[in-house]
Structures are given as C-alpha cells and as structure tokens.
Design a protein that fits this description.
Peptide Deformylase; two-stranded antiparallel sheet; 29% helix; alpha+beta; 4 helices
Length: 220
C-alpha cells in the first residue's frame, strides 16, 4: 500500500513499534538495513489471487530474512505496508510503516494475522483514495472502516494485537486483504477496476523507474 502524499513528516511523528511506544526510531527500520530488495509482484500474477499459507515455524533465519527484505522492498517502493505474496512468497505475513491520522507512526510486522473489525454500530466507513504497490501507478476510492484490529504473532511466535485508526486502519485492512488473495481492485466496480488498470498501464514504467532510483539512492 503506497503512502499518501499528505503524510506528516517522519520527524514530527510519535512512534509505536510492534504496538508499543518508543522514544525514538530511525527513518529506515533496522530490518531494512539488513535486507535486500525483492521484486514486487503485479496484479494478474497467480500468487496474488490465492489465500496465503499459515506460517508454521517461528524463530527461523529464513523468516527473519524475509521480513528484513520486505521492509527494504517496501521503503524502496515508498510503501506504507507490504504483504509476503507481494514479493512472491505465499505466507500469511505483512510488514508496515504507516502513520495514522493523529500523527503517530506505526512500524512492525505481524505473522498469521486475523483481522477484527468493529461492529456496524461502532465504526464509520471512510471512502478515500487507495493504491497498491502491486497495482503500480493507480489509485481509486475504496470504502474502509476507520478502526481495525489485527491479532497474530511476531517472528518469534509471541502474540501481538495491533490496533489502528484512520489511515493506519486502512493499511491493516489492505494488507489483510492481500493474505486472503484479494487486492483493492476486487472491491471496485467493473468500471472503476478498468479505470485503475488503465492508470497502471499508463504509469507503471514511471513507477518502476522511481523504484530503481530509490534503490540506487539507498545503495541497494
């Protein structure tokens, strides 16, 4: 999920890492410093359209390395979140570095997440533009609830509960959709889906060029 253009500047944000407040945090997470850039899958590839598998083994070097790579890949693509199937790995896992509407930056990863949305009487639907790193260059309005909770585990198997409001709630819902084989295009009418795909065809090469420039800027 791309970061919106009006996000607060990183230096202005309070930070919560894995749901817990921290005094300070670097612009690039420590995971990204260890990671390598992976190719981001594009809508139409089969891995994006099937449910992902549960992670069965925690605390492995392979899982840690995947998370590191996903963080760096997300930053290179100017993303706010990235699911594992967006780098071609069909596991229930996503990473995020996303602001909410109250000036709090949320950073972390969650494994085997289960999305929990509030009931109809305690939530509000917000219709706002949304993009996706796997639909490069396209944005369309998508209705999402203004609150969301995901429950899952960290890479070592410790339980996590991550709560989001505003834009961060949108991010959590967007990434959870990926893990069941959906993109935001699946929430659009046929006409709006065609419009989004047309935007992607017109802009994807420019997006890929910007990603290449960002990778070079980060020395990757």
């Amino acid at each position: 999920m791309p970061i919106r253009d009006d996000r607060p500047h990183t230096a202005d944000l309070r930070v919560r890492v894995q749901g817990r407040p921290v005094d300070s945090y670097p612009a690039l997470s420590p995971e990204a410093e260890r990671g390598a850039v992976r190719r981001i899958t594009v809508v139409g590839e089969e891995v994006l359209s099937r449910p992902c598998r549960e992670v069965a083994e925690f605390g492995t070097p392979e899982l840690a390395s995947l998370i590191d790579d996903m963080f760096l890949t997300m930053y290179v693509a100017d993303g706010a979140g990235l699911a594992a199937n967006q780098v071609g790995v069909d596991l229930r896992l996503f990473v995020y570095d996303c602001p909410d509407d109250d000036g709090i930056r949320h950073v972390g990863h969650i494994v085997n997440p289960v999305l929990d949305l509030p009931g109809p009487g305690s939530r509000r639907l917000v219709d706002a533009h949304e993009g996706c790193l796997s639909v490069p260059g396209a944005t369309m309005p998508v209705p999402r609830t203004d609150r969301a909770v995901v429950r899952g585990f960290d890479k070592d198997g410790s339980p996590l509960v991550i709560e989001g409001t505003g834009y961060f709630a949108r991010c959590l819902q967007h990434e959870a959709d990926h893990l069941v084989g959906h993109t935001y295009l699946d929430r659009l009418s046929k006409r709006h889906r065609k419009d989004a795909l047309r935007q992607m065809e017109d802009r994807r090469e420019d997006v890929f060029a910007r990603r290449a420039d960002k990778a070079a800027e980060l020395g990757r």
